[in-house]
Give the backbone structure.
Amino acid sequence: MSSKKKKRESPMPASSAGLLRFFEDETSGVKVRPEIVVLLSIAVVVASLVLRVILPV
């Protein structure tokens, strides 16, 4: 058997097949773009810092 034939017949790793199936499933629920999540988290951090400066404890 040649080495080229062995490479073609080698099985795919089991973990990659599971990940592909996971991302193909469509889920119901609220869908939010990642940019919005990042912007909201930055806004919460900035608001927290502003409140800490305005209302020192």
The first helix runs from residue 3 to 9. Residues 32-57 form one domain. The mean pLDDT is 75. The helical segments are 3-9, 14-24, 34-54.
